[in-house]
């Protein structure tokens, strides 16, 4: 089940276990059950503090993890490999008494949560967003005896997925009711349960001393700006909705110079670790809503708090552009999706459409072709914008159809899920209907700058207008990355523009 290299790495991690734990396998005669039995046996063979026994989970096959002598509170319904292998390793360590690296204050907040919570998270093993949610809920179950959590592989428990009409992952249920969907951090989940936490956090933020540089945004541009500012020895802060930004949703990265291949979450983890090597005050789960100039520059947050700074660097990035057609919002997460890697496995054997013929659209079609029944790519223009090598690959696959000059006009559904879409042939003005179960939207990015339209000069596309030093139309305010007029939205370019903005802000403060 585990190759020699992976087993050696796991053995090293398991040396951190300090208290005995049990693995409880609920099995049947299926091939996946045999895999779980083999996996549990190999793990138990690596450490004498781990025992392997039979469980009685209602979902089979499944693997539960518990402190010896206690009822299990962490369950894996499915084989936790792929992206979820890290979730398994962390669950083993935490059950065995190895401390979590999560904020100590947040852990105490989890221990004190009132009430009983039974969480279930539906995932796909190819989803790079799912492990964050699984690991957060596993930790909560480990810390609080009134919390349980089960990871459920949607591809393995397809009947449950169909009954609950789950069409996007991760999908989280609490006590049988839908709790949330998509990436969620540990802090977000806890704050959703602890209703008084937001007010306390806002009050604490209002008491913070002014910064010399405040970076708004935690993606590659924001991280780079924070590091360059902190290295100047000045008081630096970062405020963001989540650290990593859009890169967290990126799977394969092959054009980051000096690193032949990495994945978004791995790169983000390295960025965050690098930032935290400096005295940077990192604030997450906070959205900026207003920017204004007074004696200092003020950034108002959705929570009601206000942060002040001598200079500000805006690095709020961009998000997926939407089609803005009838039915899109109604069926978002019910067949309308934006991440083929995450949600693709939920459409196994079904017909899907991809909107957009650029690199991301054609790559999505190629990836989906190996999972679904067939893929139809709809491109608005009369030519595809994707690289020639990708187009040739897509055209060589028998279950990919490419339709050019096609304008999507409506998402069709049955009140519960997507059943098709309408598009107009731009040559003939004829309307056609495609019978599809899923629609993957891949039509580019839109800058996260709406909150700045009354404060700064923006381009026609909504990008923040900057000069060669990253300066904006407001003195003391700089910007970097995908939210700006900087051409070519690439990670390496965003990092460079973040460094430019930080040096520009430092130069501004010296001169003023």
Report a brief summary of the structure:
With 512 residues, the chain is α/β, with parallel strands linked by helices. 29% of the residues lie in helices and 26% in strands. The longest helix is centred in the last third of the chain and has 21 residues, at 491-511.
Describe the global form. Answer: globular
- CATH hierarchy: architecture of the largest domain: 3-Layer(aba) Sandwich
Number of domains: 3
CA-to-CA gap between the ends? 63 Å
What's the β-strand tally?
Answer: 27
Protein name: Alkyl hydroperoxide reductase subunit F
Domain Thioredoxin-like fold: 123-193
Disulfide bonds: 339-342
InterPro entries: AhpF_NTD_C, AhpF_NTD_N, Alkyl_hydroperoxide_Rdtase_suF, FAD/NAD-bd_sf, FAD/NAD-binding_dom, Ferredoxin-NADP_redctase_2, Pyr_nucl-diS_OxRdtase_2_AS, Thioredoxin-like_fold
